[in-house]
Amino acid sequence: MSREARVGIFVLMGLIVLTYFTFRVSKWGLIADKGYRLTVDFESAAGLEPKSDVKMAGVPIGKVEEIQLAGNRARLVLRIAPKYRIPIDSVASIQTQGLLGEKYVEIVPGKDLQQTLPAGGKVTHTLAPTNLDAMVRKLEGIGDDIKKFTSTLGETFGTEEGKQALADILRDVRATTASLRAVVQGNEKRFDRILVNIDKLSSDLSEISSVNKEDLRVTIANLRSFSETLKSETPALARKLEEMSDRVSGVVGDNRANVKETIENLKVASAKLDNTLDAAGRVMEKIDRGEGTLGMLVNDNTAHNSLTKTLEGINRYVRKTEELKTFIDYHLEWQAQSSDFKHYANLRLQPTADKYYQIGLVDDPRGKLDTNTTTLTTTPPGTTETTTSETYTNKLKFTALIAKRFSGFTVKGGVMESTGGVGLDYEVLKDRLTLGLDAFDFSRKGLPPHLKAYGNYDIVKNLFVTGGVDDVLASERDLRTLFLGIGIKFADEDLKTVLGAVPIKP
Amino acid sequence: MIEIRGLCKRFGRKVVLDGVDLAIPKGKNTVVIGGSGTGKSVLIKCAVGLLRPDAGEILIDGADITKMNEAERVRVRQKFGMLFQGAALFDSLDVGDNVAFALRRLKLYPERQIRDVVEEKLSMVGLRDVQRLMPAELSGGMKKRVGLARAIASEPDILLYDEPTTGLDPIMADVINDLIISLRETLGVTSIAITHDMASACKIADSIAMLYRGKIIEVGTPDEIRATSNPVVAQFVAGRAHGPITDENEEFVRFVRRTHAADEGTRRG
Amino acid sequence: MTEPARRSGAARLAEGLGERVYAMLQDLGDIFTLFLQVVSWIPRPPSEFRNVVKQMEEVGVRSMPVVLVTATFTGMVLALQSYSGFQRFGATSFVGSVVALSITRELGPVFAGLMVSGRVGASMAAELGTMKVTEQIDALVTLATNPVKYLVVPRVLAATVVLPVLVVFADLVGILGGYFVAVYLLGANPYVYIAKTYQYLQMKDIYTGLIKASVFGMLIALISCHHGFIAQGGAEGVGRATTRAVVASSMMVLISDYFMTSFMF
Description:
By secondary structure, chain B is α/β, with parallel strands linked by helices. Chain B is 45% helix and 23% strand. Chain B contains ten helices and ten strands.
């Protein structure tokens, strides 16, 4: 094996390993653009980092992709693997795992399995990480309030005025129960959800308590002191309650008719509620079985799928026209071997971030090779001298390429300098530095393909420098050369400013 | 034509060349003789621009090499070929690549002709079929000849020989002497050789210059030098152990012994 | 009698120290000048492509075994140490992260740099030193070739390009070595280990490591070539130059590492 081959393999293998790292390390690597994004806002994202896990029921389903500040809240962008659907009423919270406090986003799935969050959707329900200590302090306050309330109550009912007020209250209760009937009919779903939330809360609480053992210990201590206070206060409290209930019974006795009517109303209301629930149940069953138009719509998977697809299609189209970008660039390269300048001008159309088309012109000072053989007959006669001269002349060449980007790599192919060619670019430092290899002109007479290795670096947005080795493989005829160059480039928004004209968009 | 005027060179406090004046005529062999460490090597290294003199002029065809910038000096240096004392062949390259070195660097021939040109240069120093050998495989005499082939490969106008016969057996030394003479005759080059080997000097020289204590003290044809009246030159030519050159040293040695003994005396006292 | 002797001893010491400092500053200046010369010679024809490839083989391909072995064992010992440390507070799942971050950011480049200093620095200084004392460098000049262009430029270019490649391999085998120890010897969960390895690792960690490696390569080549160039006095002088080159380039790897780390992170 030749020395060049050994070194070539060495460098190539290094690049392969680096590529492997790039794909492993850069967020999601090869499946970077698979999966969909969701956003969720929290009061604080303290402890979370990009690439933290997103879990549903403890199963990792994605990663945190970005953490931004939206207003004064933390906005997380989550990347969820495509196979997982998240119910629209799911609740997101930030949880801690293990002793060292590694944070992750837990999504407690909602009950609404029919409606799931679309790509780009937002998880609206969040649970702020609760501080148990603060909660206990609040409970203590509530205890105080209750104490105050009951004593006030006792005082209130002791007077004639109070009795009258109670009568009014009971009248109000009657009216309230009457309207309850109507309310219940419309809101059974909400109750349902409230129950679910309570359920969730208690499960969260149990989780929180298992994680925050230290906090819990303090909490329990606080609770103990609270209950002790309560114990000492209880006899007084009980006396007051006794007094109060005496008075209440007196009041009730005086208003027996009102109370009776109230109870009647309640009975009717609950019966109605029963009926309503029955009816709702029946409707749901029907929908489930696929009866009726709504049922068909809900249960027909094909209809649902085609709708989703249509929406996605529209989405993609809209995005496409929005994202089409135009770039114009011009650069010149000083070629060390011939001390000549090679000029390039390109137009690039970029419909999506990962794809572009490029057409361009190349003015190559050594574009055309002419070989002249002159034979001179000199004195003494019979002596001839043959001179072979190789001259290069200027030639204009054109380029037309299609390019596709995968992670940091861009694969190019098409016409390069008027011949077939392929190329590979690698972009680093937030795309400011491009390292690339172009191979073209595969059928040169007596020469290996034209291989160009180059690096471009954007000094500022519109100005870049370039450098590298042109025609790396050609060891003869001084074709291989170092080159250095500088160029300018404009995107369409720059052109808008520069030309003061309409945006360039097809 | 090389003309050296008032050349001075010091290393630290040690003055090596102290106003050397020497004219080297075109197409002739000039030999500079002198004892070891008298600055002969320094003189030719200044001439080729390997060392920068502290003062003085070195005119190569009328242009002063000491006042040139690096680019001009590189151009003038292409007129020179130099044979080093130990041949200084590049260990990592084979004989062929060694001889072809300057040809490739200066792109004097297309790559496909280089092998033939190298073979021709090697045949001029009496070697053949050695292109594939590495320098480590060569004897001292062969190394010198390859070094010579390398020095003449780019067809220089001026050849410099640093101790061309040192370290060779008398027969091989004479082979080298003959080569130097034949090169002058066939190529018509101007050459400067430095040596302390009087036999070699007398054989190859058109004129001989004696360097002593940083100055050229006598210039003449070999015959004139042999018949010199200067006692210093006479001692060197005859190779006598006693004479003005060594006397001065002996005086110095005695002086050292005396002070040393005095020191010892005081310490004991 | 003793008093003046002591004073002269102190004076000698001060003088010696002054000479050392002066020599060091001179070295530093010479190396910087050499760097400027290298930069100015790089774009000028003829291209030293073949020489660069030859040096790339010497610095890169031939240093692979020693760099790979070093990196593997570094990764292994890192896993071992951090595992036993983290076990005390139940954070063994972070061993993968610690190994990956330490190797890519710090230990991969530094150990590769030190190994190359020892291996390549010595051979560069010895080769150039030998060329110096046998007048081969003077011969180059008389053959229309600038020694910096012909000898130093290819070595500096090759070392600058090749060290990052070595470090990429070092990163890979270091991580694999850590994985091997953690999973097969200490019984860590392989899935968790790999997940943690890549979770906190960013491309920035790898790139900064590679940039460091590039600078190390350049420094090692420059320093070793400098010490080769100033060698004098036969075989012994070459030996001295070699020792100085290895010591100076190893030290510069560590010193420059600190400053680059403080600038980049």
